[in-house]
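Note to self: keep these together.
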Amino acid sequence: MASASDVLTYHNDIGRTGQYLAETTLTPANVNATQFGKVGFLSVDGKVDAEPLYASNVSMGGGTHNVVFVASEHDSLYAFDADTRALIWRRSLLGSGETTSDNRSCSQITPEIGITSTPVIDRSRGANGVIYAVAMTKDANGVYHQRLHALDLSTGGELFKGPTEIAATFPGNGANSANGIDRFDPAQYAERQALTLVNGNVYLGWTSHCDQGTYGGWVMAYNADTLAQTSALDLTPNGSEGSVWMSGAGMASDGNALYLLDANGTFDSTLTSGGLPSNGDYGNTFLKLATSPSLSVADYFAPMNTVAESNQDIDLGSGGALVLPNLTDGAGTTRHLAVGAGKDSKIYVVDRDAMGKFDSTRNAIWQEIDGQLGGGVFGMPAYYGNVVYYGAVGDHLKAFPIASARLATTPSSSSAGTFPYPGTTPSISANGTQNAIVWAAENGAVGALHAFNAGNLAQELYNSNQAGSRDTFGPGNKFITPMIAHGHVYVGATNGVAVFGLLGQ
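Structure:
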């Protein structure tokens, strides 16, 4: 069964807060270049774009192991012993006679496309727990496939008669449509956003290859016990584009609805009497999706200049959504909020009960913070201790405290250094309310892991370039998110995962 020390989904929980609250080893006192550094490297057969995951006390071969799960762009899933770093099992998700996909003439996921999105683990299913992953492949006839796999945590064996071939249709006259039906083309899409598991369904979201070709914005649901598709939704059914990218972040959830930032695409600025786009096209919006009885748009927010932003490719879809915990405003009312930002460098805080929809004269939302991010957001924030942390492109990592259900309009602290494209998606470790550290990965010719005091980002505790070559791990991976578990920090790289911890232990 799951424990507090597990990391079973992207950014730790379905709210996507990025906080790991069971860290009893790493503290601001011992995370420094003298005591802390790279202690190992988990080598794999391709690039690691997915966040590693961690499950404690997994039954394997008559014993139990703490296990790190790593997905590669060479379509392989690995299970490593977290304590010895020995390989336990490796499974290729390639079909017979198949290869990984080429990069589809797009440099965003390159040189090959295999398992790009962060998998998700459910320890309550199957005999030993299940890890779900989406793999893209190409067969001997040049036909591209997208498949959802469910693997046994202990053995890596396929479960539930999987894998299942991913296909979908939706009523519409938009991208890839014929006779009033939109069809999902597996060659045209990549599953970049992290898989989401809520109430017995695995949710997938799809993006294009470099805005090339004809595509729409697909979200799909699959039954976690049978791998049967339960619902499919095209977010631009009578238009085009509007894909789900979010730089690898996963759709967030409050346990019922899903929240995501949709990329540039068709938006119908002519609205129905209920304030919804007249043709059902939701390009460049902050979306709330109902999940029952099937996927549908329950509410949304679109910036007042949404069409102009899409036309200029300055959309929200580069960023991920974060569901905030319940907050009390100045009048004592409980507020249910979510936060997100994209390429326009604005922080949007929406009321999940009334998101604001579209108004061409104003942004009718709970809160908007302008002028505080130094660039666009290609990732997502983290939340801990009533503070939201953002790392925009070319900007300092910044902390925005929350009071009376509103973010501070200026940051309370920021890092001395800045983060080049794509900025950084921070993660946080803490022992409950103590010893909080903000971790951030830096992209570049030489990647870096940074650690900051969560209470004052101006205090950098450590970075992996401080000790010469001892802690380096090669070029950075642009959308990687650090994963913290059981006294270690895991950072995806171009040929594996760098493991950091206390030296000499």
